[in-house]
Amino acid sequence: MRTRLRTGTAGIALATATAALALGTGGAADAVALKSATGCNNNVCIYVAGNAGGTVLVQAWARNTNFTGYFHVTWPGGSRDSGTQTWLGGKGNYYSTSFTSGSGSVCATGYTTSGAAQGTPCLRVS
Description:
Elements: E1 5-6, E2 34-41, E3 44-51, E4 55-62, E5 67-75, E6 78-81, E7 85-87, E8 95-100, E9 104-112, E10 117-119, E11 122-125
Antiparallel strand pairs: 1-11, 2-3, 3-4, 4-8, 5-6, 5-7, 5-9, 9-10, 9-11
């Protein structure tokens, strides 16, 4: 399955970057394309990278301001929570997870320990 990333979830400000990496295997030269994008909303940013094999990597971090809490990451057909800790603004640390691709939105919401949402950037995977 080929994984493509698109930006553009309504109402969410996104900054995007796209990169491609081709890895050759020699003889039968199958190329694996890596596509990536980054998006931010309020105090949460995500980086999403996928490859032609269908694996998608997601990283979530505090954009500017530290907060103590956790990230809730959702993707087509699944979700996962980080542990609770202090997340340092400016990607001083980040939560990383991966999954096998489906088609739809990948989102990360940061929550403080009191339950206050810090932002929810989303990127589209197809």
